[in-house]
Amino acid sequence: LWNVLLSFPGLLALIQLVFLPFFPESPPYLLLQKGDKAGCLKAMKQLWGEGNYHTEFEDMMKEKAVTKGTKIMNVLEVLREPSVYPQLSTMLLLLLSVQLCGLSATANLQESIIPYVSLGVAVSELISIIFCSSIIDHFGRRILLCGGYLLMALILVLLETSLLLSDHFLWMRYCSVILVFLFLIAYGIGP
């Protein structure tokens, strides 16, 4: 029943995808990134119910005033900033730990190819982190989550199909590996 186990995260992603559009955007995102005061107050009321959220709104306005003069750095500027090296080291350690998770054995490949698949997994996650950090401010979390979950669901269906056909067509194993890479990229960009 490994195929049922493999499809279980797809079911959870589908459930989240169905309910996600009914939730409002994050109030701090609406106020700090989009500058939408009315949308922020509406989201607060929708999330927390009716009430006076003047104190929370004022706190966010103070945060906006503090961060107004702060320069938003791109990915290369972050990589050159020594103050973020501990966080980058932690992130790199997490990326490298994926090598031990067994994804490279998913497609039943020859042992000589598995190190390249492991390297591909790490590169896929790095690509997704860089890409997501570059576009999240432009699109917002909701679009990335919905798009990521949709893409993950599609990739899981294709992955299941390629794994079922891999006994009949040897080249389908390589398709499975590519789909694992794409799944990791979709997961990193979305959820």
Characterize this entry briefly.
The protein is an all-alpha fold.
Structural commentary:
The radius of gyration is 21 Å and the shape is flat. The protein has two domains: 1-68, no CATH class; 75-189, no CATH class. It is built from nine helices and no strands. It is mostly helical and 191 residues long.
Quickly list its features.
191 residues, transmembrane helix, mainly alpha, 9 helices, 74% helix, membrane
Oligomeric nature of the chains: single chain
Helix run count: 9
Q: What is the CA–CA distance across the termini?
A: 26 Å
Taken together, the total number of domains comes to 2
The main β sheet shows up as: none
Portion of residues in beta strands equals: under 5%
* Class from secondary-structure proportions: mainly alpha
Radius of gyration: 21 Å
Helical percentage:
over 70%
Average pLDDT score:
78
Low-confidence runs: none
What coarse outline follows from CA principal-axis ratios? flat
- Give the H and E element order: HHHHHHHHH
- Give the number of DSSP strands: 0
GO biological process, one term: dehydroascorbic acid transport
Domain Major facilitator superfamily (MFS) profile: 1-191
InterPro entries: GLUT, MFS_dom, MFS_sugar_transport-like, MFS_trans_sf
Organism: Turnix velox
